[in-house]
Amino acid sequence: MFIKRVTGALAAIAAAMSLAPATASADAAFPDRPIRFIVPFTAGGITDNVARTVGARAAELLGQPIIIENRAGAGGNIGAEYAANSKPDGYTIFLGTQGTQVTNPLIYNTGSRPDKALTAVQGLTAIPNIVVVNESRPYDTLDKLIAYAKANPGKLNTSSAGAGTGTHLASELFQSIVGVKFSHIPFKGSAPSITALIGGQVDLSFDYPVSTEAFIKSGKIRALAVTGETRLPTFPDLPTLAELGYPGATSISWMGVFVPAGTPEPVAAKLEKAFAQAIDDPQIASRLIGFGGVPLKKNSADFNAFVREESIKWGNVVKEANVKLD
Q1: Contact, 121 vs 259, CB < 8 A?
Q2: Of the residues 63, 128, 137, 186, which has the fewest C-beta atoms closer than 10 A?
Q3: To which H or E segment does residue 123 belong?
Q4: What is the DSSP string of 304-321?
């Protein structure tokens, strides 16, 4: 019996040792076939555009095609769930966002946590909101808006692209930090939200540059501030909330590359390097700026830590504002 046990143990060790070189060889050869890039939203939107833009350059650097696969639905949860359950071999990667990785788990009751099963590899872009108001309103500066809101609590209506979206949560954070109260009116997307703002049905909004830029430049709405850490290259004269005295209200929506947990470290490192080099490319960085953001230069360690910090920050906002889905 003792001999049999020893023989069995040695066989197991030998089998494990025989697999190790094969695994190492596979990691070294990565990638040797196309990579699927799961985008949890429909084609043609900003997330899709970012994935296609950066993915095309990363594919050149990796020497293999990166195929965009749109799996939209449930605010990004369907795509996140699919990616989380994919084989952790580097051949399925995911475009994670502030929504899929941080806020969705706080406001959706899906019974699963794909965000926990995905690991951050490399940041891609950070997109702030712009505080915009109807051009006919009397508050043409942020200080005047705040003064009016404090004198008329609850009277001002703020629109969003939907309950729980970045356009909604940025407003809730602002209200909490500044000490004002708006009445929230959710719409099904940024387009109807901004249309209502232009028409005067609502007073203000916290929306993305891609949704507001044309209307700001045409004078149909007025921009008061940007919620990001730095000024936007497309609006260099527009101050940040921090510059105006409200650093705690700073917020961004972000995107990055994630992989299923358990992806071999050498494989994840190759993906990290390729996508980091992609957003460093001046042409790619210029296109990201055109989408209303700036490159988010956070490597795997920094990006994972950032996601944890964001979870705490937005968890407090969701709880305090009692954010619920439409």
Answers
A1: yes
A2: 63
A3: strand 118-128
A4: HHHHHHHHHHHHHHHHHH
Amino acid identity at 130: I
Other beta carbons less than 10 A from residue 223's beta carbon = 20
For 284, how many CA atoms within 13 A lie in the half-sphere containing its CB? Answer: 23
> Which residues does residue 186 pair with via DSSP β-bridges, in sequence order?
160
Q: Could you tell me the CA-to-CA distances from 60 to 54, 266, 277 in Å, in that order?
A: 10, 19, 11
Q: Supply angle C-alpha 111, 115, 299, rounded to 5.
A: 175
Which pLDDT score, from 0 to 100, does residue 4 have?
Answer: 46
- Amino acid (1-letter code) at residue 45: G
Q: What is the pTM of this model?
A: 0.88
The DSSP element (H or E) to which 75 belongs, if any, is none
Residue range 217-259, pLDDT digits in tens: 999 999 999 999 999 998 999 999 999 999 999 999 999 999 9
Tokens representing 264 are 């071999």
Distance between CA atoms of 213 and 223, rounded to whole angstroms? 9
